[in-house]
Amino acid sequence: MNTHKLSKYLTLGIVMVLLIPLASSLMVSAQMNSSTLYIGWVTSHPYQSLSTYNPNLFDGGLGGSFYGLVYAYTALLNVSNNGIIPCLIENWSFSPSNWEQVWQNETVNVTITLRHSGWANGAPVTAYDIEATCLILDILGAPPYPNYTVVNNYTIIISHPPDTLSPYLLAFTEICAIGLGEVALISSYSQYKPLVQQIHADWTQLQHDNTTLIKKLRSELHSYLPPGPLPANYNGPYYVAQITPNEIVLDKNPYYFAANNIKFNQVVIYQFSSISSAEAAVLKGQVSIEYSAFMSLPSTLISSLPSYYEVVNIPDPGGYALYFNFKNPWLAQLPVRQAIAYVLNRTSIALAGGSKYSPVPIPNGIPNFTYYKQYITPAVQNLNPYSTNLQKATQLLESAGFTMKNGQWYTPNGTPFTLTIIVPTSPGPGLTNMLNVIKDELTSFGIPTSYYIETVSSVLIKDWQTGQNYDLAVQGWGGYYPVTVDWYLETQYFAGIPYNVTQWDGVVTLPNGTQVNVIKLYSATVAPNSSAELTSANDEMAYALNYYLPALPLVYEAQQVIINTHDLVAPPPSSWFWQEYFYGIGGTAINQLGLSSDYLQPVSIVTTTSTSTAPPVTTSTTTSVSPLEVAGIVVVVIVIIAVALIALRRRK
Prior knowledge:
Elements: H1 3-9, H2 12-30, E1 36-42, E2 75-78, E3 83-86, E4 89-95, H3 99-102, E5 108-114, H4 127-139, E6 147-152, E7 155-160, H5 170-178, H6 193-201, H7 203-207, H8 211-222, E8 238-243, E9 247-252, E10 266-272, H9 275-283, E11 289-290, H10 299-303, E12 309-314, E13 318-324, H11 334-343, H12 346-353, E14 357-359, H13 390-399, E15 403-405, E16 408-410, E17 419-423, H14 429-445, E18 449-453, H15 457-466, E19 472-478, H16 488-491, E20 507-509, E21 515-517, H17 518-526, H18 531-548, E22 551-557, E23 559-564, E24 568-569, H19 589-596, E25 601-602, H20 627-651
Parallel strand pairs: 1-10, 17-18, 17-19
Antiparallel strand pairs: 2-3, 4-5, 5-7, 6-7, 8-9, 9-10, 11-23, 12-23, 13-19, 13-22, 14-22, 15-16, 20-21, 24-25
């Protein structure tokens, strides 16, 4: 508390009006244990102990859901205005000076300067760590890759090949160039040195797309065990300090650049093996904050939450889709995929999921979303909505040579046509209900369908690489990209970069015979040569994917964040802050920004920081109030009140 400011305005009346309730609240706060943030996480494979834990997130270590907590972002995108919020970086610059005119034909250099921050073992975060993370991410992507030049411990130059950084999407360009896309700084050079050196040695071959070498390096990455102490792997606000089968304990990283701002000394992640136990903990008030990166709460629970929970609803231009496995020879046929689209009732599926789900009106159309409205042009208003039509589905299957016998569809070679759906996440009640509707609707139509849950990363990677053990996959679809439509998951990540869930080559043959490679077309949606090309590319992408259906988007999922107001002070639902849910893996940008910049605080911390103002351009430093300081303030306040009361009595 700023006592100088109080003394400036101090009168006996103000003391009576302001300090008495303050003293009361401070005394209550001093009695509360406010230094721990509690989060619930539903997982079918809980971590067991530190001794069996591998921090390599590519081998099952804490991954995307924990970005912003144990891994720091280099920069965040302010989704509300497409500005950049520096985090681990201090500043950046582009060269040559006329790069916006020559970017198509010349290399664009981005010079990044890091602020002083540290890994949790005390080692500094350096430019070599930026390089290590970038190189590891590169082998999971596709060439051409940038080149990296480390100038010193805190300066790195990233040189992007011609025609990759477009000035027509500056926000996207900046966040990819300086913010590592949506990935935090996940790899320490010292911890991954052997692998990084190997990538360096093979760099020329990697740039020439040596697929055999890329697969080899990916395999080595997935089995790598970092050699150093566990804290050496974490550079975020917290690090992994303890693991039991029931919880993961994260302690504050004292070397994090904004450590003085972090008001919670500890984060406890409850590891729930069932939805029911997680819901029970929420209803008992044992969880401070919850959102879908950790578990998705059903509508029934949201409606029955205790009154001290606040719910923030965030519309999202993404949700769940069914991805078709083209290794199934029948699903590789367009009429069969279209028939399935006509069978499934997206409205019924969304209703089964609950209030935060809504049906996708036009599969692979451009979402009717604030940031995308300029792309909803006449060219994409007449796409196929695939409204439920069982007669049309029957005609399509028959045209592909399928026959119906005793309520069961048979393939052209006479075998029963059945489908298996793989679910690569522990589904909450909403997703489980939707899966059951999908299964029942297809089965009722004569295509017996089942689904199974597989969350072991090594098994999933093998399945994705081979295309075995599944016919369809339920995966995320869509999402927010600055200024442009987000086609990444469907045309890149799940189409071969790095995992080809669809087992598809990305080529669409349109009804007029024209072929479109949507994997290559994607680059025009993120690095266009002009604004006109950007609109045209999004139009073409929507039409191609709507017609060809490599994936069938089913529902939008509005994001919901619940806040336990007994534990946490957070911005109001109307604040720009919650739009940050669109940036970062699984909405985890709000972790780092909220905890580092005073937007998420314990209820007992006295602060004058507003939680609904514009985002910080640089991270400010605020001193937290310890229990002893609180006690001291209470004593001072009580003394002042006592003096004031005596003065009033004398005046009588």
